[in-house]
Amino acid sequence: GRKRGMARSGSFPPRVRSVLPESLPGFSSCPRSRAREVNSAAAGRFHSDPAAITGKHLRDLFPAPVAAQHLDGIRRVIVSKTAIHHEICEKFPTGTVWVDVRLSPVVDDTGTVVGVLGRSDDITGRKHADATLKATLDRLSSLESTINKGPAVAMTFQPVNGDISNIRMKMVSENVRIFGYDPEEFLAGEMEYEKIIHPHDIGWLLPAFTQAVRSGTDRGRYEFRIFTRAGEIRWMDTTLWVERTGDGTISQLQAVGG
Fold it and tell me: What pTM was computed for the model?
């Protein structure tokens, strides 16, 4: 017989449908893994409408490997009767998509799982940003190691709210000591980098680089003078460049010179 708690139409009760707002991609699936209810956001991912998707098996909607991932999650929810949250890499002929998937069991009055409610969010952009950030950090770690073995000095600055005209120092390589300075002086804020740049150069250096970046050039080479702790003047041949996140926001400014 029909399980108690199910609407006569075969769809989920209104209280279940109410957790599928149109702005969030979501679906409800029966234990046989056919889409029973699909909102417009979810259907939009298939360039279709909810009516065309409803009733289809997941194998009809996704390539076999992708469907297998989703089916495995649904089976886990049905068996455990508990919600799960995981990330899935969906590989399509047109490209790879990462989705954050949340699945919850829908049970009737007897405790039997009569469906699975799902919500998925496209996190491809975030994954790309994470990968870019990791690659950047790996490069910086390697760069710092190399620089500390040679005469060049490296510095990393954090822009405030993405504005490179307002920056704070995050890292300075150990060999800044060749100029008589201690790295901790800069990191603790006891010594400001502006104070060691010649006053005739500080006025044009950062504004020139800022203007270049705003004009579409993220990398530049500049010559300017600094003071050593002993008061000597040294010329620096320095490369400056910015690192960006996946959405194009400037995350940090790099400087390597000697």
Answer: 0.44
